[in-house]
Amino acid sequence: MTNKSSASKVSFRPLDNLFEPTDGSAEKPLLTELPIDNLVPFEKHPFKEYPEEKMQEMVESVSEYGVLMPILVRPHNSGEGYEIISGHNRVEACKRAGIARIPATVRELDDDTAVIIMVDSNLRQRDKLLPSEKAKAYQMKMEAMKRQGARRDLTSDRVGPKSRTRESIGEQAGDSGTQVQRFIRLNNLTTPLLSYVDDGTLAFNPAVEVSYLDPADQQVVYEIMERDQISPSLSQAQKLHKLAQIGKISEDAIEAVMTVEKPMYETITFRRNTVEKYFPAGTSGREIEQTIIRLLEDYQRKRENITSLEER
């Protein structure tokens, strides 16, 4: 049970100060307290629930202190209840803690503005995001911004170039416009391959190249990965992409590239005793490899950001 007397004394920071309005509306949000049962998740919400350990910490926090930052909602289009824009994990934590009501800021938001605020709030609040989460979130925001731009274009100057839109989207998560484009490409992967990207079985850059294959050819790639416990290198994935472009890809060609073709570059091998000091005891070789790849991808994104700034 939450302590209502203590909760009522909490001074909530207005949510408009946290998420700047994007619709130019002068409408003032309503700060209130809503029954949990009257809330529904945002449609096609692309972000997964917090990991169990982090969720349990949140449950303990709301049980002891209540919800200190109100969630953001809008009236549901059915006319009944409210749709959560920001605060899905806080709502789940309250449910698990047996808390029946939650502080909320209610705003009238059109669909595109709601999408943009939902994506931006999660990019701000979450430390780590899966590639699939970023891919879906970036695409949702890109489409919403395009629709908003198209509406404004009816009465004002033309919308800026797509590259500028991608750069704007990536700012929240420290990604360059080019990297945003790569993440959005991941939405063209089949579900099994996208899951492989999330768990590190399929590296990010090869995954982008494989995304240009049609679903049937992607299924062949997946089956070979499953059968032989292998994953395409970047050079192999680029070769598959090239074959698809010129219309010469086939099951036999995919098999040849993934299982016969020698790597284009020299293989680099790390001795375990040279890197294990940087990892907790018991970390598997596969986990070490995945971590190194993630760090290299972060390094690449930073280099791209620097290059992007220098080109301006």
Characterise this structure.
The protein has 312 residues and is an alpha/beta fold. The chain has 3 domains: 4-125, Conserved hypothetical protein from pyrococcus furiosus pfu- 392566-001, ParB domain (Alpha-Beta Complex), CATH 3.90.1530.10; 134-268, Arc Repressor Mutant, subunit A, CATH 1.10.10; 269-312, no CATH class. It is built from 15 helices and 5 strands. The protein has helices at residues 4-7, 15-18, 52-65, 88-97, 111-125, 131-153, 162-170, 177-185, 191-199, 204-210, 215-228, 234-245, 251-259, 272-275, 285-311; strands at residues 30-35, 39-40, 71-75, 82-86, 101-106. A 5-stranded mixed beta sheet has the order 1-5-3-4-2. It is globular, with a radius of gyration of 23 Å. 30% of the residues are buried.
Q: Key terms for this structure?
A:
single chain; 312 residues; alpha/beta; Conserved hypothetical protein from pyrococcus furiosus pfu- 392566-001, ParB domain; Arc Repressor Mutant, subunit A; 3 domains; five-stranded mixed β-sheet; 15 helices; globular; disordered N terminus
Low-confidence stretches: 1-26, 154-160, 262-266
What is the CATH class name of the largest domain? Answer: Mainly Alpha
**What's the number of helices?**
15
Distance between the termini: 54 Å
Query: What is the second-level CATH architecture of the largest domain?
Result: Orthogonal Bundle
**What sort of overall outline do the alpha carbons produce when their principal axes are compared?**
globular
- Compressed to H and E, one letter per element, the order equals HHEEHEEHEHHHHHHHHHHH
